[in-house]
Specification:
alpha/beta; Rossmann fold; Alpha-Beta Plaits; 2 domains; 6-stranded parallel sheet
Length: about 220
Protein backbone atom coordinates (compact mmCIF):
# COMPACT_ATOMS: atom_id res chain seq x y z
CA UNK A 1 0.00 0.00 0.00
CA UNK A 2 1.80 3.10 -1.25
CA UNK A 3 0.01 5.54 1.04
CA UNK A 4 0.39 3.40 4.16
CA UNK A 5 0.84 5.37 7.37
CA UNK A 6 2.51 4.55 10.66
CA UNK A 7 0.51 4.62 13.91
CA UNK A 8 1.39 3.96 17.53
CA UNK A 9 -1.38 2.95 19.92
CA UNK A 10 -0.91 3.15 23.70
CA UNK A 11 -3.26 1.06 25.81
CA UNK A 12 -4.58 -2.11 24.21
CA UNK A 13 -7.97 -2.53 25.81
CA UNK A 14 -11.10 -3.31 23.78
CA UNK A 15 -11.00 0.03 21.98
CA UNK A 16 -7.24 0.01 21.44
CA UNK A 17 -7.20 -3.58 20.18
CA UNK A 18 -10.08 -2.98 17.77
CA UNK A 19 -8.36 0.15 16.49
CA UNK A 20 -5.04 -1.66 15.96
CA UNK A 21 -6.62 -4.53 14.05
CA UNK A 22 -8.69 -2.22 11.85
CA UNK A 23 -5.73 -0.02 10.94
CA UNK A 24 -3.65 -3.06 10.02
CA UNK A 25 -6.50 -4.57 8.01
CA UNK A 26 -6.58 -1.30 6.04
CA UNK A 27 -2.90 -1.76 5.16
CA UNK A 28 -1.22 0.58 7.65
CA UNK A 29 1.68 -0.11 10.04
CA UNK A 30 0.81 -0.22 13.74
CA UNK A 31 2.97 -0.35 16.84
CA UNK A 32 0.94 -1.51 19.85
CA UNK A 33 2.18 -0.53 23.31
CA UNK A 34 0.89 -1.80 26.64
CA UNK A 35 2.29 -2.52 30.08
CA UNK A 36 0.79 -6.01 30.34
CA UNK A 37 2.71 -8.90 28.79
CA UNK A 38 -0.43 -11.00 28.25
CA UNK A 39 -2.12 -8.15 26.38
CA UNK A 40 0.92 -7.69 24.12
CA UNK A 41 1.05 -11.41 23.38
CA UNK A 42 -2.62 -11.37 22.39
CA UNK A 43 -2.35 -8.39 20.03
CA UNK A 44 1.06 -9.24 18.50
CA UNK A 45 -0.26 -11.46 15.66
CA UNK A 46 -2.51 -8.66 14.43
CA UNK A 47 -0.10 -5.69 14.32
CA UNK A 48 3.22 -4.75 12.75
CA UNK A 49 4.97 -4.71 16.13
CA UNK A 50 3.92 -4.98 19.77
CA UNK A 51 5.98 -3.79 22.72
CA UNK A 52 5.51 -4.24 26.45
CA UNK A 53 6.66 -1.08 28.20
CA UNK A 54 5.73 1.65 30.64
CA UNK A 55 4.50 4.40 28.31
CA UNK A 56 4.99 7.02 31.03
CA UNK A 57 8.76 6.39 30.92
CA UNK A 58 10.09 9.28 28.82
CA UNK A 59 13.39 7.55 28.07
CA UNK A 60 11.60 4.42 26.86
CA UNK A 61 9.36 6.52 24.61
CA UNK A 62 12.38 8.16 23.00
CA UNK A 63 13.72 4.75 21.98
CA UNK A 64 10.68 3.94 19.82
CA UNK A 65 11.12 7.11 17.75
CA UNK A 66 7.75 8.77 18.35
CA UNK A 67 8.54 11.59 15.92
CA UNK A 68 8.48 9.12 13.02
CA UNK A 69 4.82 8.17 13.47
CA UNK A 70 2.04 9.88 11.53
CA UNK A 71 -0.24 9.74 14.57
CA UNK A 72 -0.40 8.45 18.13
CA UNK A 73 -3.53 7.16 19.81
CA UNK A 74 -3.62 7.18 23.60
CA UNK A 75 -6.39 4.79 24.57
CA UNK A 76 -5.46 4.48 28.23
CA UNK A 77 -8.90 4.81 29.76
CA UNK A 78 -8.78 3.70 33.38
CA UNK A 79 -5.69 5.59 34.57
CA UNK A 80 -6.41 9.26 33.93
CA UNK A 81 -2.99 10.38 35.15
CA UNK A 82 -1.16 8.05 32.75
CA UNK A 83 -3.45 9.05 29.90
CA UNK A 84 -2.65 12.72 30.38
CA UNK A 85 1.07 12.14 30.88
CA UNK A 86 1.48 9.93 27.80
CA UNK A 87 -0.50 12.40 25.71
CA UNK A 88 1.74 15.23 26.87
CA UNK A 89 4.92 13.23 26.20
CA UNK A 90 3.71 12.44 22.68
CA UNK A 91 3.13 16.12 21.94
CA UNK A 92 6.49 17.10 23.40
CA UNK A 93 8.18 14.40 21.31
CA UNK A 94 6.83 16.02 18.16
CA UNK A 95 4.13 13.53 17.13
CA UNK A 96 2.24 15.15 14.25
CA UNK A 97 -1.25 14.17 15.43
CA UNK A 98 -2.34 12.88 18.83
CA UNK A 99 -5.74 11.37 19.53
CA UNK A 100 -6.62 10.56 23.14
CA UNK A 101 -9.48 8.65 24.69
CA UNK A 102 -11.29 10.45 27.52
CA UNK A 103 -13.49 9.05 30.25
CA UNK A 104 -15.40 12.26 31.00
CA UNK A 105 -15.52 15.97 30.16
CA UNK A 106 -13.01 16.96 32.86
CA UNK A 107 -10.52 14.42 31.53
CA UNK A 108 -11.13 15.74 28.02
CA UNK A 109 -10.60 19.34 29.14
CA UNK A 110 -7.18 18.51 30.58
CA UNK A 111 -6.21 16.54 27.46
CA UNK A 112 -7.04 19.56 25.29
CA UNK A 113 -5.00 21.78 27.62
CA UNK A 114 -1.89 19.66 27.05
CA UNK A 115 -2.33 20.00 23.29
CA UNK A 116 -4.10 16.82 22.18
CA UNK A 117 -5.37 17.28 18.62
CA UNK A 118 -8.55 15.22 19.01
CA UNK A 119 -10.35 13.81 22.05
CA UNK A 120 -12.67 10.84 21.61
CA UNK A 121 -15.28 9.20 23.82
CA UNK A 122 -15.60 5.67 22.33
CA UNK A 123 -18.25 4.38 24.73
CA UNK A 124 -20.37 7.52 24.52
CA UNK A 125 -20.04 7.78 20.75
CA UNK A 126 -20.97 4.12 20.29
CA UNK A 127 -24.00 4.66 22.49
CA UNK A 128 -25.05 7.58 20.30
CA UNK A 129 -24.60 5.51 17.13
CA UNK A 130 -26.64 2.61 18.49
CA UNK A 131 -29.38 4.97 19.67
CA UNK A 132 -29.50 6.69 16.28
CA UNK A 133 -29.64 3.34 14.49
CA UNK A 134 -32.66 2.38 16.60
CA UNK A 135 -34.46 5.66 15.99
CA UNK A 136 -33.33 6.17 12.37
CA UNK A 137 -32.50 2.81 10.74
CA UNK A 138 -31.50 4.60 7.50
CA UNK A 139 -28.31 5.92 9.13
CA UNK A 140 -25.17 4.06 8.03
CA UNK A 141 -22.47 6.18 9.66
CA UNK A 142 -21.96 9.55 11.29
CA UNK A 143 -18.99 11.90 11.53
CA UNK A 144 -19.40 14.91 13.82
CA UNK A 145 -17.50 17.85 12.36
CA UNK A 146 -18.58 20.42 14.94
CA UNK A 147 -21.37 20.77 17.47
CA UNK A 148 -23.62 21.94 14.61
CA UNK A 149 -22.42 20.23 11.41
CA UNK A 150 -21.90 16.59 10.47
CA UNK A 151 -21.15 14.27 7.58
CA UNK A 152 -23.55 11.36 7.57
CA UNK A 153 -24.08 8.36 5.31
CA UNK A 154 -27.69 7.20 4.93
CA UNK A 155 -29.53 4.53 3.03
CA UNK A 156 -31.49 6.08 0.17
CA UNK A 157 -35.05 6.89 1.32
CA UNK A 158 -37.61 4.81 -0.61
CA UNK A 159 -39.41 7.76 -2.16
CA UNK A 160 -36.15 9.07 -3.66
CA UNK A 161 -35.68 5.87 -5.67
CA UNK A 162 -35.74 6.52 -9.42
CA UNK A 163 -35.09 10.25 -9.07
CA UNK A 164 -31.92 12.32 -9.45
CA UNK A 165 -30.37 14.64 -6.85
CA UNK A 166 -31.27 17.53 -9.13
CA UNK A 167 -34.93 16.45 -9.33
CA UNK A 168 -35.14 16.00 -5.56
CA UNK A 169 -33.60 19.47 -5.05
CA UNK A 170 -31.75 18.17 -2.02
CA UNK A 171 -29.85 21.37 -1.27
CA UNK A 172 -32.80 23.75 -1.73
CA UNK A 173 -35.45 21.65 0.03
CA UNK A 174 -33.36 19.99 2.72
CA UNK A 175 -30.34 22.30 3.16
CA UNK A 176 -27.72 19.56 2.78
CA UNK A 177 -25.08 18.74 0.18
CA UNK A 178 -24.63 15.29 -1.35
CA UNK A 179 -20.88 14.56 -1.32
CA UNK A 180 -20.93 11.15 -2.96
CA UNK A 181 -23.02 8.11 -3.75
CA UNK A 182 -21.98 4.55 -2.95
CA UNK A 183 -23.54 1.81 -5.07
CA UNK A 184 -22.20 -1.58 -4.08
CA UNK A 185 -18.44 -1.44 -4.55
CA UNK A 186 -18.62 1.69 -6.73
CA UNK A 187 -18.36 5.27 -5.47
CA UNK A 188 -19.80 8.03 -7.66
CA UNK A 189 -18.71 11.64 -7.22
CA UNK A 190 -18.69 13.26 -10.65
CA UNK A 191 -21.95 14.05 -12.49
CA UNK A 192 -23.79 13.04 -9.33
CA UNK A 193 -26.61 15.56 -9.77
CA UNK A 194 -28.02 13.75 -12.80
CA UNK A 195 -27.43 10.16 -11.72
CA UNK A 196 -30.64 8.15 -11.38
CA UNK A 197 -30.81 6.88 -7.79
CA UNK A 198 -31.46 3.18 -7.13
CA UNK A 199 -32.77 1.24 -4.16
CA UNK A 200 -29.84 0.26 -1.92
CA UNK A 201 -27.76 3.33 -2.77
CA UNK A 202 -25.97 5.05 0.11
CA UNK A 203 -25.65 8.85 0.10
CA UNK A 204 -23.00 10.77 2.03
CA UNK A 205 -24.48 14.07 3.15
CA UNK A 206 -22.92 17.22 4.59
CA UNK A 207 -25.06 19.68 6.51
CA UNK A 208 -26.41 21.07 9.73
CA UNK A 209 -27.33 18.27 12.12
CA UNK A 210 -30.96 19.38 12.27
CA UNK A 211 -31.25 19.23 8.48
CA UNK A 212 -29.54 15.85 8.29
CA UNK A 213 -31.87 14.47 10.98
CA UNK A 214 -34.89 15.47 8.89
CA UNK A 215 -33.62 13.28 6.05
CA UNK A 216 -32.93 10.41 8.48
CA UNK A 217 -36.62 10.26 9.31
CA UNK A 218 -37.80 10.14 5.69
CA UNK A 219 -39.57 6.88 4.75
Amino acid sequence: MSNAKQFVVFGIGRFGASLCKTLCDLGHEVLAVDGEEEVINDIAPFVTQAIQMDATDEDALKKIGLRNFDAAVVSIGDNVRDSILVSLLCKEAGVKYVISKATDELHAKVLRKVGVDKVVFPERDMGIRVAKSLIAPNVVDLINLTDEYAIESIQLPDHWVGKTVREIEVRRKYGVTVLLLQRGEDVLIEELSDTRLLKGDVLMLLGHKHDVEKIESLP
